[in-house]
Amino acid sequence: MFAKICGLREARHVTAAIDAGADAVGFVLTASPRFVTASEARELVGIADARALTVGVFRHETVDEVARLADASGVAAIQVHGKRTRAEMSKLEQIGRTLIRAVPFDDPSLEEDWGENLLLVDAPRPGSGEAWDYAAMSGLSEARGRWLLAGGLTAGNVAAAVTAAKPYGVDVSSGVETAPGVKSTELIRAFLAAAKA
Ligand SMILES: O=C(O)c1ccccc1N[C@@H]1O[C@H](COP(=O)(O)O)[C@@H](O)[C@H]1O
């Protein structure tokens, strides 16, 4: 099971996540309690040292702004939330990094391939920690191939969520925090142990 730990802001949490088996680590470059500047993200990308996929997370930024921040931070992948068009997705593809298209679970384009490398299916409010009916995605796997499940996951519910939705991987932020933006090494380890089991 592919696992991404998102919203990391401290070197020790990047190291802990990768040492515990994270396949990807995410840095939020958009407005959020987990916001990091491009130069802070660049330091964290260096700590990851190519041992995990480094992901920059964006929401309302234009394609040009995403490209600029991806360059400045050095992330290997871009994860784009927010209302996007196919035309924008084509331009985002041309940035030349792994492209993750994030959509809420009720998005009508869920089944469509918009050129992304990975689809991420999330709660309507990204980063809110709100759980939803993961079983509603049980039919998605065959049609979509590789997609990630997110939104309100924790060490306590990830196993049941994976059984219900059958994703390729999982993504978590709030569920490994003690308060918004405050990550916990123990919760990161517990989440990865549960997800990988
Ligand atoms: O984490 C944020 O603050 C955030 C802000 C803007 C866009 C995405 C954000 N995070 C993503 O939200 C999902 C689920 O988060 P949670 O586990 O429910 O807190 C995850 O994909 C994060 O990458």
Automatic annotation (TrEMBL):
Enzyme Commission number(s) of this protein: 5.3.1.24
Pathway participation: Amino-acid biosynthesis; L-tryptophan biosynthesis; L-tryptophan from chorismate: step 3/5
Catalytic function, reaction form: N-(5-phospho-beta-D-ribosyl)anthranilate = 1-(2-carboxyphenylamino)-1-deoxy-D-ribulose 5-phosphate
Domain N-(5'phosphoribosyl) anthranilate isomerase (PRAI): 3-192
Keyword Plastid annotated: no
GO annotation, biological process: L-tryptophan biosynthetic process
Keywords: Amino-acid biosynthesis, Aromatic amino acid biosynthesis, Isomerase, Tryptophan biosynthesis
Transport among keywords: no
Pfam family, any one: PRAI
Gene Ontology MF terms in the entry: phosphoribosylanthranilate isomerase activity
Family, similarity comment: Belongs to the TrpF family.
Entries under PANTHER family matching the protein: N-(5'-PHOSPHORIBOSYL)ANTHRANILATE ISOMERASE (PTHR42894:SF1)
UniProt name for this protein: N-(5'-phosphoribosyl)anthranilate isomerase
Gene: trpF
